């Protein structure tokens, strides 16, 4: 499964450096996008750029037409590639392979410069920061379980082995008009804890189903980085029986009233 979400795909070389948020999944390739506005027909031998993280560890280095692998930190070796066929158009983006949770919240910055063609090492574009972005790495929650006890009117929702910490929501569907009632968070008991080894979260959420004309209860677990929501729904059969008894009682009352009137 390939999931990538980028707040904005292009960053232009301007006086202000915008900040991007790049969302991706553990183990899947993602792109760190950046565009440097180059003069027309710029030869790559006049281009210099490099990327580094917030610790000043170098991801990639390109200088005057050549890739400089000796400058790259071992943390990023064999994981980072550029797009050389697009560099003449100013594309200094990187392809980031095999992101892990260790890369989560890393801040990456691209710096660039362009020399003139006189050989005097004078800048057409001064050396400066071109792009900045924060990487968010996630692990999808793949399964969700919902257990309902209609005798005690309690419900337990559970999921596990995902990242980051999920958001949970409970909804009750009204029988009469199919509207949904969102349960107040204060009425929900949720525990979410990461595994100390791999940092993946497990979640358990419990509610007491309130009285009311409800035909179903649903638990929603949301991964905020991937913007993916898992939903589990249970139809309340006991509620249906209670509604039948109420309907029968109402019918008997109407019948009794009709006899009295008669």
Automatic annotation (TrEMBL):
Localization annotation: Membrane
Signal peptide as annotated in the record: 1-16
Gene Ontology MF annotations: signaling receptor binding
Top-level lineage group: Eukaryota
Keyword RNA-binding: no
Domain CD80-like immunoglobulin C2-set: 146-226
The keyword Hydrolase appears for this protein: no
SUPFAM superfamilies assigned to the protein according to its UniProt record, in alphabetical order: Immunoglobulin
Keywords per UniProt: Disulfide bond, Immunoglobulin domain, Membrane, Signal
GO cellular component, one term: external side of plasma membrane
GO BP: regulation of cytokine production; T cell receptor signaling pathway
Gene3D superfamilies: Immunoglobulins
PANTHER family: BUTYROPHILIN (PTHR24100), SELECTION AND UPKEEP OF INTRAEPITHELIAL T-CELLS PROTEIN 10-RELATED (PTHR24100:SF148)
Protein name (database record): CD80-like immunoglobulin C2-set domain-containing protein
Organism (species): Perca flavescens (American yellow perch)
């Amino acid at each position: 499964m390939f999931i990538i979400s980028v707040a904005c795909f292009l960053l232009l070389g301007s006086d202000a450096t915008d900040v991007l948020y790049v969302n991706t999944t553990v183990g899947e390739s993602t792109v760190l996008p950046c565009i440097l506005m180059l003069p027309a027909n710029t030869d790559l031998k006049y281009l210099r750029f490099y990327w580094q993280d917030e610790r000043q560890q170098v991801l990639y280095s390109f200088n005057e037409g050549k890739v400089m692998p000796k400058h790259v930190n071992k943390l990023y070796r064999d994981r980072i590639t550029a797009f050389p066929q697009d560099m003449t158009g100013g594309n200094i983006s990187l392809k980031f392979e095999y992101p892990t949770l260790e890369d989560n919240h890393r801040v990456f910055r691209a710096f660039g410069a362009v020399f003139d063609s006189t050989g005097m090492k004078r800048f057409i574009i001064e050396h400066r920061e071109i792009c900045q972005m924060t990487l968010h790495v996630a692990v999808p929650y793949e399964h969700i379980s919902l257990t309902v006890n209609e005798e005690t009117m309690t419900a337990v929702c559970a999921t596990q082995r995902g990242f980051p910490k999920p958001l949970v929501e409970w909804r009750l569907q009204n029988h009469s008009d199919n509207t949904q009632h969102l349960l107040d968070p204060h009425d929900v008991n949720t525990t979410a804890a990461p595994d100390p080894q791999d940092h993946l979260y497990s979640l358990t959420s419990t509610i007491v189903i309130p009285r009311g004309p409800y035909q179903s209860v649903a638990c929603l677990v949301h991964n905020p980085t991937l913007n993916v929501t898992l939903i589990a729904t249970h139809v309340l059969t006991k509620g249906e029986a209670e509604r039948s008894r109420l309907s029968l009682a109402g019918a008997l009352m109407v019948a009794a009233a009709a006899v009295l009137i008669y």
